[in-house]
Amino acid sequence: MSFGIYVHVPFCLRRCGYCAFVTSAPGDDRVPWEDRHRTWARSVVHEIGTAAALLGDHRPPVDTVYLGGGTPTVVDPDLVVAVLDATRRDLDVADDLEVTIECNPDGLRPGQLGRLVDGGVTRVSIGMQSADPAVLRTLDRSHPWELAVVAVDDARSAGAAHVGLDLILGTPGETDESWCRTLDVALACDVDHLSAYALAVEPGTKLAARVRGGSLPAPDPDVAARRYELLDDACSAAGLQWYELSNWAADDGARCRHNLGTWRDHDWWGVGPGAHSHVGSQRWWNHAAEREWATAVGEGRIPAAGHEVLDRAARRCERIMLGIRLREGLAVDEELDPGAVDALVADGLVDRRDGSTPGTRTGPGADRIVLTRRGRLLADAVVRRLV
User: Fold this and answer.
1) Which site among 85, 278, 350, 367 is 20 to 30 Å from 187 CA-CA?
2) How far apart are CA 289 and CA 281, in angstroms?
3) What is the pLDDT of residues 112-163, one digit of tens each?
4) CATH superfamily placement of domain 3-262
5) What is the topology classification, in CATH, of domain 313-386?
6) pTM (2 decimals)?
């Protein structure tokens, strides 16, 4: 079973209107920007040490590290590499350690990605979102789409083993034509991974205020479904196959192993402000405020703002919600209602398959159910029927 480390980097040059993650921009705090970065890096290193001590001598080897945000590449690469060095020093890591870093196309400095790759980064995930300038303005993105193409070339030149693009579909004002243009641009790049998520209106965001005030229409789920089908067709034609509802990869090696571990209900430890952790039946989430988080970490405590213990029913629900998203499917066992499974098969929402996939918690020979494409469009309804 895999064990991952998630590192949250709570900094962005500019906050996008749709974003509800824990992040801030220059000027949001009286402390100088670079000082906050150094405090963050120092505290992350301390938190990794705390994790190592609490996991103990029998801790599992770490096989994935994921640097997300926020925008991790706004931080000096030497600080990021120091975090990776601390992970390798304090924790047992696998020989084939996967290290993913998210970045935005703008703000990358010459040589930055090369320093990160030299320091251990193996995957670069670039937030392109769209090739339609009007859509980028609606999303409050600060970069022209052309910079995403440049960033892909820079990541490849730096020696990154895997490079992917992140897209958002269904933004108000987007058309089928502009979405297809985005797909053409993205798939013409030298990428082996593509992620695409339908725009969601999160409470408390600028986007939510615009929709509530009537200046922007709410995203249309039927439009999003049509765009998803266009996306899936384009990826298949380009040789990228879906392995999770919103992710496509050129081959098994290009898949994000860190995220696969999450979807397979494996364990991870989250460090940084607002990061979530999942170890066994324990779930906790860190303080979102940088100072409160850093103070707790400096005192050698888990900087948890909340904690819960998942009972069997909650674990079952999560296993279904996460596992059904995967192309490898969900094991049919005693926890699944046979009648519900049969009804979903009859309705064309899932297929039943023999065998199992290495890396799952089910042994060889188990039957599995896998979403059809229609089922992928109605995944939430499939989950409700299964649970």
Assistant:
1) 350
2) 26
3) 999 999 999 999 999 999 999 999 999 999 899 999 999 999 999 999 999 9
4) Aldolase class I (3.20.20.70)
5) Arc Repressor Mutant, subunit A (1.10.10)
6) 0.94
